[in-house]
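Entry 12.
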Amino acid sequence: MNTEPIQNEPVRFDTKIAVLLREDLEPWQRLNVTAFLVSGFGATVPEVIGEPYTDADGVGYLPMFRQPVLVFEGAKETLNAAHGRALGRALPRAVFTSDLFATGNDRDNRAAVRAVPTAELDLVGLAVYGPRSAVDKVLKGARMHP
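Predicted 3D structure (C-alpha cells):
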C-alpha cells in the first residue's frame, strides 16, 4: 500500500492565523492594520514561517507564512468579545487600536496602547493564532471579509 501523500491533495493545517477588522475601517486602514497585526507572529511564533523562496534563476526571496491568513470583519462589539475570548484562551494575539492611526512610530504606538486599560481599548483590529477550533471560537459572530 502506498502511504506517500498525494501531490495535489490539499494541505489541512491544524492551526489558524486570523485577523478580525472592525467593519467601519476605510480600505487603506484595513490593509495597513492587517499588515501590522500579522507581523508579530513571524517574529514570535517561528512555526508559522515556511521556507525561503527561490526563483528559477536562483534569486532568493524571504520566507512567508506557511499557511493562509484569514481575514474577518465585525462590529465593534464583535471585536471586543473576540478580544476577551482570545485573552481567556491565552492565544498569541496582536491588537491595533484607533489611537495608532495618529502616531508615527513604533515607540509611540506602544505608548498609546500602554496608556489605556484593557477593557477600554478602542480596538479596530485583532489577530490571533492557535489551534483551529480555539481560533474559530474566538471569532464567533465575525464574518469573512468580502
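Annotation: The helical segments are 27-44, 76-88, 106-114, 132-138. The first strand starts at residue 15 and ends at 22.
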